[in-house]
Write a structure and sequence with these properties.
The chain is α/β, with parallel strands linked by helices. 34% of the residues lie in helices and 18% in strands. The protein folds into three domains: 80 residues, Rossmann fold; 54 residues, no CATH class; 68 residues, no CATH class. It is built from nine helices and ten strands. Strand 3, helix 2 and strand 4 form a beta-alpha-beta unit. The two termini are 26 Å apart.
């Protein structure tokens, strides 16, 4: 499945960004850039990014053309077909940032999703991230193998587990002292549907934690995309039966 955009987090503190336009849309972009610490400059300044928030269609498209001719990446407010990048709805639980984008198709939908997720995510989510960062040396000593470390953290942050991010009261040091090593192995998943939303929680977790994914050639990309981007993927038809459904075998090395 092709991504319409690659989500990136760009550090803009102290860096110039061109902003053109007046009115509510321009003011909203100005506030967003100021929160990111960007230096807002005019069209003639040197910059890598530009935002065009001009209401008049002709003026806006002319500005976009001039900026793109300078090889700048441009966001054209309310004109997604002319955007090189879009600005998402943001949930801030510093240092955790969650960005929700629709490729400029519907800012209202992104805002609605942000409001729903704001109510789910505890205020202490950022504190959990900071505790995990502080525990990195101890984590590496406890789990020197990267795959084992990733699986241990994945299990610890599952729903109801000791480091459940939605619980808001995780004690990283206590979990680390109590946690037990996990054995490597393989899990075979027989799909009864090609819809990724029909994966069970256990199946989705197995895919997310896999180091290698062996799959029937008929397994759709929407299912395989639930695995990590760096997990090895390999089509393996001979040993995988397609009855009663398509099969995926995930391996935790």
């Amino acid at each position: 499945m092709t991504l319409h955009s690659l989500p990136l987090f760009v550090r803009l503190a102290g860096r110039p960004v061109i902003l053109l336009g007046e009115g509510e849309a321009a003011d909203a972009k100005r506030r967003l850039l100021e929160r990111a610490g960007a230096i807002i400059v005019g069209e003639d300044a040197a910059a890598s990014l530009a935002i065009v928030a001009i209401d008049d269609e002709g003026e806006a498209l002319a500005a976009v053309a001039r900026l793109k001719a300078r090889r700048l990446l441009v966001n054209a407010v309310d004109r997604p077909e002319h955007c090189d990048f879009t600005t998402p709805a943001i949930i801030d639980r510093a240092p955790v940032l969650i960005a929700i984008g629709t490729g400029g198709v519907s800012a209202g939908l992104a805002a609605a999703l942000r409001q729903r997720l704001e109510a789910l995510l505890p205020a202490g989510l950022g504190l959990l991230a900071e505790r995990l960062q502080a525990a990195r040396p101890a984590l590496r000593r406890r789990y020197p193998d990267g795959g084992e470390r990733r699986r241990a953290l994945g299990a610890a942050m599952a729903a109801g587990a000791p480091l459940d991010p939605l619980a808001g009261d995780a004690d990283v040091e206590r979990w680390l002292s109590d946690d037990q090593a996990r054995e490597a192995g393989s899990v075979r998943i027989v799909l009864t549907s090609v819809d990724p939303d029909d994966l069970t929680l256990r199946q989705a977790r197995s895919l997310a934690n896999a180091d290698r994914v062996l799959h029937h050639p008929g397994v759709p990309a929407a299912i395989l995309d639930r695995a990590r981007a760096d997990a090895v993927r390999q089509v393996w038809a001979p040993g995988l039966s397609s009855e009663p459904g398509l099969t995926v075998e995930v391996t935790m090395a």
